[in-house]
From TrEMBL:
Name of the featured protein: DUF998 domain-containing protein
Keyword flag Cytoplasm: no
Residue ranges of the TM segments: 6-27, 57-75, 81-100, 120-139, 145-168, 180-197
Taxonomic lineage: Bacteria, Pseudomonadati, Pseudomonadota, Gammaproteobacteria, Oceanospirillales
Keyword entries, A-Z: Membrane, Transmembrane, Transmembrane helix
Organism: Thalassolituus pacificus
Length: 198
């Protein structure tokens, strides 16, 4: 069982890419460049029920299991335990985002309560995978390679989060920048997961 748990970070990194692609196949005319990933599970969308089932709920479990693996296996390392806690928080936020759908229109000026919960949970989700690699960067117990890798992923996330805010205001291609922003976070998870089981 422990051997499976140690791979859950890698599995989650691959699952999230495959899950978004698969769910989008059941959403007519869905645009990966113009639409957010969360729009797959938005209220009233063709994939409102399907997307959380194949994305949020299994992904949340995988994140939580990997966080548990880090906390339980590296209990003597404060930095690794802190990273594990951030991964667990990421998993819980993923569940909340799946249970409370965003509104169909991401530009609505009067979001519903479920959409507000979804949005705030999304903020926690984003921050948890900013704090986690930041801990890895400043932990002197990590080798230089993983610290540099974590810093690169952080900078990539920051840059494309900024680009996301610009493209959202301009209503151009926020989907592309959201995927790249979160993509750097998932890339970090994948790389960190490989490092921890190597």
């Amino acid at each position: 069982m422990l051997s499976f748990i140690s791979y859950t970070g890698i599995i989650a990194s691959i699952w999230i890419v495959a899950g978004v692609i698969i769910a989008s196949l059941f959403y007519p005319n869905y645009s990966h460049s113009r639409q957010f990933c969360s729009e797959l599970g938005a209220a009233g969308s063709p994939t409102q029920k399907l997307s959380p089932l194949i994305n949020n709920y299994p992904l949340g479990l995988l994140f939580i299991l990997f966080g548990y693996y880090l906390i339980s296996t590296y209990a003597e390392s404060t930095a690794t335990v802190a990273i594990g806690i951030m991964v667990v928080i990421h998993g819980l936020s993923t569940w909340v985002c799946g249970f409370f759908p965003m509104d169909a229109d991401p530009y609505t000026t009067t979001p519903t309560i479920p959409c507000q919960i979804h949005s705030w949970s999304g903020v926690v989700l984003l921050l948890s995978f900013i704090v986690a690699p930041a801990i890895a960067v400043f932990s002197d117990t990590n080798p230089t390679a993983i610290r540099v890798f974590s810093l690169i992923c952080l900078l990539g996330c920051f840059y494309f989060t900024y680009r996301l805010s610009v493209s959202f205001k301009e209503r151009t291609n926020p989907g592309t920048h959201q995927r790249l922003s979160y993509g750097f976070q998932i890339l970090w998870l994948f790389g960190y997961s490989v490092f921890m089981i190597a």
